[in-house]
């Protein structure tokens, strides 16, 4: 039985059949999506730093949008956005 084997006897692990993570559009899981307010964003890039899926797009030091193919809708970007009183990035329902 596998649980009686040492790590050297275990069979080699499997590979991801679908390929790399880049080929998985995990944004399909999302029920809410972040939407940026162009007028209030101060380009602090906190959302870029904290996004666990690297879904915040940056160009020339500015936040230019969200890659919805990979954004899972966790809402961390909204939480860390420092703009007050209304955040420059808001989670909105996709339903
Ligand atoms: S909702 Fe989550 S995954 Fe999507 S951009 Fe914001 S931090 Fe990244
Ligand atoms: S955290 Fe808020 S202010 Fe900072 S770049 Fe993102 S949306 Fe803009």
SSE arrangement:
Blueprint lengths: L31 E5 L9 H5 L5 E4 L2 E5 L9 H5 L8 E5 L2
Antiparallel strand pairs: 1-4, 2-3
Bound molecules: iron/sulfur cluster (2 copies).
One iron/sulfur cluster binds next to helix 2.
Which regions are unreliable across 5 or more consecutive residues at pLDDT < 50?
Answer: none
Helix content: 10-25%
Helix-strand makeup class: alpha+beta
Determine the mean pLDDT: 90
Q: How would you explain this protein's 3D organization?
A:
- This protein is an alpha+beta fold and 95 residues long.
- It has one domain: Alpha-Beta Plaits, CATH 3.30.70.20.
- It has 2 helices and 4 strands, in the order E-H-E-E-H-E.
- The protein has helices spanning 46-50, 76-80; strands at 32-36, 56-59, 62-66, 89-93.
- It has a two-stranded antiparallel sheet.
- A hairpin with a 2-residue loop joins strand 2 and strand 3.
- The radius of gyration is 19 Å and the shape is elongated.
- The chain starts with 31 loop residues before the first strand and ends with a strand.
- The relative contact order is 0.25.
- Bound molecules: iron/sulfur cluster (SF4) (2 copies).
């Amino acid at each position: 039985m596998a649980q009686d084997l040492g790590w050297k006897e275990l069979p080699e692990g499997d590979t991801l059949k679908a390929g790399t993570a880049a080929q998985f559009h995990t944004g399909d899981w999302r029920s809410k999506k972040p939407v940026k307010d162009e007028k209030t964003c101060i380009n602090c890039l906190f959302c870029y730093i904290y996004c666990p899926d690297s879904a915040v797009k940056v160009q020339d030091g500015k936040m230019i949008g969200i890659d919805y193919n990979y954004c899972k809708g966790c809402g961390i970007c909204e939480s860390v956005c420092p703009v007050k009183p209304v955040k420059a990035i808001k989670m909105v329902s996709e339903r």
